């Protein structure tokens, strides 16, 4: 009996460790802006013409034949933070402590990136409360990174994030064969999100909470502490 219980626990632990975890980004970030050739660069969604050091990630670097995204993808800047270190909330480091490179961040500025991938600070969000030049519209065209394309197709992908980030998550994962599990807390998850209705690879799991702002942090923490399971 003891051996059977022990084996089941280890098997459950192994399966959890092999899950792919995706969590949406946060507005509260560590560190400073990217400094490139002695210029401090601010990344926004819609740069103002008068702000010469404000750029969208897909803008071309002045006087160079590459975009800022291509520069970030080169990972040649050793001063950038690994993405799980960029965000202030402790849930990112807690998730990384358990899942390591199986943790991914859904960034409004950069797409889906691995937790160990280094990115610069940015001021891009789907929140309508942000400044206009920081707001990314769901119809905006970005050359988003998608680091999930190289994961094992048999792994489950678990997503923690607000409704504003669901369309981007959907667009970047809809063609992956993996089962995608989305936690949500809205009364009607399909309200404004009809694209999820007939997608068999997406599984919706209701998370009960009275928290309305950044509720997914609590959900991710409860998942870590085995208070909720799949």
Helix share bin: 10-25%
Instruction: Count every helix, treating DSSP H or I runs of 4 or more residues as helices.
Output: 6
Low-confidence runs: 1-15
Question: In sequence order, what are the helices and strands, one letter per element?
Answer: HEEEEHEHHEEEEEHEEH
Beta-strand share of residues: 15-25%
What is the makeup of the main sheet? 7 strands, mixed
| Quaternary structure of the protein | single chain
State the secondary-structure class.
alpha/beta
Summarize the structure.
With 230 residues, this protein is an alpha/beta fold. Helix content is 23%, strand content 19%.
Question: Mind explaining what this structure looks like?
Answer:
- The chain has 230 residues and is α/β, with parallel strands linked by helices.
- The protein has a domain at 18-31 and 82-224.
- Helix content is 23%, strand content 19%.
- The chain is built from six helices and twelve strands.
- The chain has a seven-stranded mixed beta sheet. The chain has a three-stranded mixed beta sheet with strand order 2-3-4, with no helix packed on it. Strands 5-8 form a two-stranded antiparallel sheet.
- Strand 6 and strand 7 form a beta hairpin.
Helix and strand arrangement:
Elements lengths: L1 H16 L2 E5 L9 E3 L2 E5 L10 E2 L12 H7 L6 E2 H4 L4 H9 L3 E5 L3 E4 L3 E2 L25 E2 L10 E4 L5 H8 L6 E5 L17 E5 L8 H10 L6
Parallel strand pairs: 1-6, 1-10, 3-4, 7-9, 10-11, 11-12
Antiparallel strand pairs: 2-3, 5-8, 6-7
